Amino acid sequence: MSTYEELVVNGYRLLHEQDVDQALDISRELQQLDALATEGYVLEGEVMQKLNQFDHCVRLFSKALEIDPEAARVYNLRGYALMQKERVEEALGDFERAIELGDLPEAHRNLVLCRVLEEKGGEAITYLINRIRKDPRDVENWILMGDIMKRGGQADKARSYYEQALKMDPDNEYAQRQLEE
User: Fold this and answer.
1) What is the pTM of this model?
2) Is residue 1 predicted with pLDDT exceeding 70?
3) 19 in Cβ contact with 7 (< 8 Å)
């Protein structure tokens, strides 16, 4: 019999290996073992996210936040699901809460994406430039800026951001692919 912690680790391993059925089974086993712990709900929510079942994700992440209202990562996950449902204002609130609680880099990036979805590209770029200044070693920010520039038709600027990302992470396949296009 596995310990609770081993089940959590195994569930995420299976999820990353794309074995969503087994990961889902483990998430529900975790919920049965301890209904007052967040891990089972969060794991199931992440499985549902892989399956693009965003309404279900929102419900599961909300349940986890009822249990632990200080879980920055879960606010970010729920915000992402809300963003996919085009519930941008609610998503922004969750990303802001995740940033307030844990200053999560991925929540900052998701906030930028929300601004882009709201067609507030100028705000998104300003915010992202400030993030790059604050943490110039965060490769994902450089890549995101490259993507925004590319979408905006500024191929030369996009290229410079991808090149900067590759200087820090020469093995980054995504940035390499963007430069090959």
Assistant:
1) 0.87
2) no
3) no
